[in-house]
Amino acid sequence: MDETNQTDKSNMIEVLESIPEQIAEAVKLAKDVKVTEPIKRIMVAGMGGSAVSGDILKAYLKDKIDVRVNRNYFLPELVGKETLLFILSYSGNTEETISAYRTAQRKNMNMVVITTGGKLEELSKISKIPCIIIPKGFQPRAALAYLFFPMLTVLYNSHFIDNPVEDIKKTIKTLKNPKFKERAQDLAEKLVEKIPLIYTSERMGVVAYRWKTQFNENAKVHAFCHVFPELDHNELVGYGNIKAGYHVIIIKDDDDYVKVKKRIDITKRLISEAGINVTEMVIKGECFLTKLFSAIYLGDLTSYYLALKYGTDPTPVEVIEELKKGL
Ligand code: PA5
Q1: CA proximity to 52, closest of 207, 168, 188
Q2: Does the beta carbon of 103 lie inside 6 Å of ligand 1?
Q3: Separation of 320 CA from ligand 1 center, angstroms?
Q4: 3-class SS at 117?
């Protein structure tokens, strides 16, 4: 067992600090897994903290491969053997994901399961479906590296994407920078007693969504997100009446489309003039993968520090467990 597996996974900050090591380990877990049949598209089936890895994959691969994310009991009619399906469930016991697995099996689809065990490990063993077993003990949302990087490795092993190793190395190096914590602490300070509204360009939309869900699950607060340019056509108008309690976070990337950057500047001014505080977070990185993970890491840390400010344990999500028991 390596060092990553020995850390106490109920301590969220230790888990966050070990993300660079988790990425390296996650790549290794998938090193022998590949798909040999030709495919036209990728689908990722999962829920919550597991499914978001599918959104990151979709963002990272942009238009290079058609990637869809399925958060439901059923799979769309259109998918069949030409779709590679990643079944992602940290616990291996999520009912929507198991149901999607069973549907895919009936359709005889190409599948790769990524899980810690549970029913999905059992089912995939019986049917000899490739199954990548990731370490137990994390919260699903905190196991992001273990859920995402094996997919990337399988896609490379199967010759569906270019070698991502340089991007991965840059990402690991960048995430070791201690400055992330300082930025996150400063931002968390501003968010106490506020409802975070997180905005990004559409190409970084997964980042805004991850920030939202991490505020929900770590800090146990409501948070909402939207993307440019669409938000300028509706959400912006909502600053007309109720204004209490919001704090807008705009996550900017220098590579955003020039017109989107102009929109961001004007939108920021208009929201400030409406009396709402806006904080801009500029994300830098040598490649898009690094930017995505840097921005996500900053959000994970900010939600962690915000939880501490509320005196809340960021790790457990008891209400989700309670709901699952009732199903
Ligand atoms: O963050 C969480 O705990 C949830 O969003 C879970 O990820 C979600 O309920 C699905 O569970 P699992 O990831 O085990 O399939």
Answers
A1: 207
A2: no
A3: 8
A4: coil
CATH superfamily of 12-163: Glucose-6-phosphate isomerase like protein; domain 1 (3.40.50.10490)
Q: 1-32: per-residue pLDDT in tens?
A: 344 444 557 899 999 999 999 999 999 999 99
What is the predicted pLDDT for the residue at 8? 59
Other Cβ atoms less than 10 A from the Cβ of 212: the count is 20
Q: Starting at the earlier edge strand, list the strands of the sheet with 195-201.
A: 224-228, 195-201, 246-253, 277-283
Task: Please give the structure tokens belonging to residue 21.
Answer: 């090591």
Answer whether residue 242 shows pLDDT above 90: no
pTM listed for this prediction: 0.95
Cβ(138) – ligand 1 distance below 6 Å: no
> What are 111's two structure tokens?
């599948």
> Annotated active-site positions, please?
217, 233, 324
- Look at ligand 1, atom 15, and give the residue with the nearest C-alpha: 89
Q: CATH topology of 12-163 equal to that of 174-309?
A: yes
Pocket lining: 216 vs ligand 1, CB cutoff 6 Å: no
Ligand 1, closest atom to CA 48? 5
Task: Name the residue ranges covered by the structural domains of the chain.
Answer: 12-163, 174-309
Torsion of the alpha carbons at 127, 128, 131 and 137, rounded to the nearest 10? 60
Q: What's the CATH number of domain 174-309, 1.10.357.10, 3.30.420.40, 3.90.650.10, 3.40.50.10490? A: 3.40.50.10490
Q: Which residue's C-alpha comes closest to atom 3 of ligand 1?
A: 140
